[in-house]
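Follow-up to my post from last week.
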Amino acid sequence: MNTMSPSISAEADMQSKGAAVPVPEHKRKDTLMEDKPEDTVIEEGKTVGKPFTDNPKFKLRNVDVSYGADRAIKNISLDIGRNEVIAFIGPSGCGKSTFLRCLNRMNDSIEICRVKGSFELDGQNIYESKRDVVELRARVGMVFQKPNPFPKSIYDNVAYGPRIHGLANRKSELDDIVENSLRKAGLWNEAKDRLDAMATGMSGGQQQRLCIARAIAVSPEVILMDEPCSALDPIATARVEELIAEMSESYTIVIVTHSMQQAARVSNRTAYFHMGHLVEVNKTDTVFTSPQHPLTESYITGRFG
Amino acid sequence: MTDQRSQAEIVRKSLKRRYRTERRFRLYGILAIFIALASLFILFADIISKGHTGFVKTTITLEVTLDSGMMYLDDPTDKDQWSSADFKAPIIAALQAQVPEAASAAEKRELGRFLGTFADSEIRDLLTKNPELLNTTQTIEFPAHDRVSVYVKHADNPRYSIKLSEQQQRWVDELLQKGIIDTSFNDVLFSRGDSREPANAGVLGAIVGSLLTMLVTLAISFPVGISAAVYLEEFAPQNKLTDFIEVNINNLAAVPSIIFGLLGLAVFINLFGMPRSVPVVGGLVLALMTLPTIIISSRAAIKSVPPSIREAAEGVGASKMQVVLHHVVPLAMPGMLTGSIIGMAQALGETAPLLLIGMVAFIVDVPDGLFSSATVLPVQIYLWASSSEQGFVELASAAIMVLLTFMIIMNALAIWLRKRLERRW
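User reply:
Got it. Predicted complex:
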């Protein structure tokens, strides 16, 4: 019941906001567009739609990220549900990747990056000082934009995570983990005969699925994907999307994507980011069929971005 | 339309000039490469033409009757008799048998001067080792004296002055014809240390000295350099202090090497009381000199490891240490090794700092340890090149060839390692 109240208040918020924030009148009447959606004033911390869920996996409140003087994320609050696929969409530079990287503290290594706010994974603060980032990353895996296999064999790529975490005691256990991970990533049939071959010799799509297998191998609870298909052709993209659908049964998946079709195909919920603000979050169908914020509407109808 | 046509006209006009510039630019490049190759060729041709005779030795092979009466020696094992014995007498007798013309005592003495200064000690050593050879006849090969050697090898070369009289030249020609005096591959060069006599001088001592020194240099500069580079690149915070350190490492790389020699003299020898002219001190000094090179090249190699690999490792939960040891260092290794080998090659050719710590001494024995007196190849070349004996000139060139061979091997090793270890990502 507790978690219901914010969601209701947010909805109410949205309605009031829809009415209270009119699109400012444009000064130049001769432009084709009556109003420039970019000029829409976004009130900080106001998100329309349903940013909160019951019993979330990730509970993120008042997140603020800045690179030196630049504020990349402006007071965002969001819940990420269990075993859901949530897509982050938005124009370039809107902060969606930055936000994603906060979820397993990948921004730690960037010295000028300052992260504020509360990040709870299953009720535990992940930014606590005593909290070990290695353990967090074993629980929250990541797949990157460009396939980045280690210049090692296919087997060693998948086995690397389990090895450093000591997840397998015997060679046979490790073999099982590698096989299972490759099977889940849909790569087993292609790779089983050349496990000792260099991973860098595979095609881009295979490499990306290998990276997914590598992330799965440490049995994470959450998998973060930062534009996983941007370097792949449509066929390889389709394979990865299929894979995401299969994986959503056992993992929570957060995917950043530039392709709205992809977001529509793979995700349960969609979050729209704009200039460091979280503008709208809702069920994917709702976002794409009846967006509630004018900026979201402009973006999904292709008026900018 | 006319606008467009005139624009095309302008472009076409400028094209000719552009292509001309391009051709000229390419020509400059080819010229530069030609100059570089030509000077390299001239250098090698000069060294080889001057030095190839250094690999040839002149010998006098004689059947010597080791007559005890002639040598005033009854028992070769008795050291007291050595001072009064005349070990040279049987050699001169054997030589005189081949040159009957030389009959007077003065002429015999001149014949004796055909042989190197150490011919008599060769007989003495032989007899001390094998006393049973006394009063037998043995065929023994002696190194010829520098004067004879120069005459045999360089009679037609105006850069060498022949120091034999007409008569002596006739005798040498006669002996040459009989095959008593002969030339063969100079194995002495690779089996002995330095000597006052060109015929007995070799580079083995200098090679061993160089190897021992390089061993110390490698053992210190490689681990220290790589650790420093990894720490500075991966772990050190970016602040004023690390900036200061970085600037100073770059400065150190530009410090003249003789300053390092002075440092070695002041610190290692005077302050720590380490001995002079030993490979340990030489190696320490060269390690200090090589360190900046290794650190700079290793840092560049670490920087060139793509960040995506680091992210990949961090993404599966590798700790900082694991990222560095499992991924960054192995991927940077080819670059680090190349830098280190090039640094070592530089150190191998270094002379100035070693002069100051006493490795310029005249050392006959082949060094047998890190703490025995030694010299190194470049210093040996320096010593020989400034010697007055004519035979040392060609030996210096031969030693230069040996040194260059080592450097070429090291550079080839660097290229081979880089090719072998290089991974693509």
